[in-house]
Amino acid sequence: MNKTATFLRFTAICSFLGALTTALLIFLPHPSAVDFETSVLLYENKLYLSRLWILFMHPQFNFIAAIGIAYLFIRKYPLCISIGTLFLFVWAYTEISQQALLIDSLNQIWRPGYVNAENEIAKDMYSTLIHAANGISDSKYFLVIYGFGLGTLLFGLAFVQERNWPRWLGFAMLFIGILSLSSFLRYYLNVSALNGIVNWCYEWIYGYLQPLVRIGLGIWILHQIKHSNPNLNTSKK
């Protein structure tokens, strides 16, 4: 029991850290570049690099929290939780690898290599690699929003079957999952009719709702430790 409770407390802490990283990614300024030459110099921008490192840690915190939820829910909602955990793993692993590409290859090798190239042949080679990084990163984003959307949706379907306040967490997760999948549809299947409503939701709802959901999930995990029986049975009361 003590080891299980310690594990679940750790996952709750990770959910709170996930809320923090979510808020930082939403509200920290986005360094911009007006052209290719300016964008190359982003490897020297500390705010830009800090965002990449936050993005690298963000899915790790949130997936560990998801493991805690899966542990508590797998017997009650095996279909939603098992498949949902699979898609959240796809999201987390893909986003981690995406940020590793940007942190290491793009900003420690290719961009500095372009700036310090001794001839045009080397410069052209690094320019090609830099441009290719955008395509590779976008392909990974394809999986990021797809995996995150489906995984969050399925976890939400589990939570809406609960009673009292956790049910509202489920509704919020359903909203976030549908919003992510709507972005997938508009970006990769050219469903442009979704642009207006999706942009509005991201601007006015998502940025505030997502950190609150992460906090709520952390509180829910701690609540399960406190109020469950020694076997951490999560049967409905």
Helix content: over 70%
Number of helices: 7
Largest sheet: none
Spans where pLDDT lies below 50 across 5 or more residues: 233-237
β-strand amount:
under 5%
Q: Could you spell the SSE succession in H and E letters?
A: HHHHHHH
Number of strand segments: 0
Tell me, briefly, the overall form: elongated
What is the number of domains?
1
Mean pLDDT: 94
Radius of gyration: 20 Å
Briefly note the structural class of the backbone.
mainly alpha
Any overview of this molecule?
This protein is mainly alpha-helical and 237 residues long. It has one domain (2-227). Helix content is 82%, strand content 0%. It has helices at 2-27, 36-40, 46-73, 78-115, 120-159, 165-188, 195-227. Helix 5 (120-159) packs antiparallel against helix 6 (165-188) and helix 6 runs antiparallel to helix 7. This is DUF4386 domain-containing protein. The chain crosses the membrane at residues 52-74, 79-96, 141-161, 168-189, 204-222. Keywords: Membrane, Transmembrane, Transmembrane helix.
Compose a concise summary of this entry.
The chain has 237 residues and is an all-alpha fold.
Q: How would the blueprint of this fold be written?
A:
Blueprint: H1 2-27, H2 36-40, H3 46-73, H4 78-115, H5 120-159, H6 165-188, H7 195-227
Helix pairs in contact: 1-3, 1-7, 3-4, 3-7, 4-5, 5-6, 6-7
Name the descriptors.
237 residues; mainly alpha; 7 helices
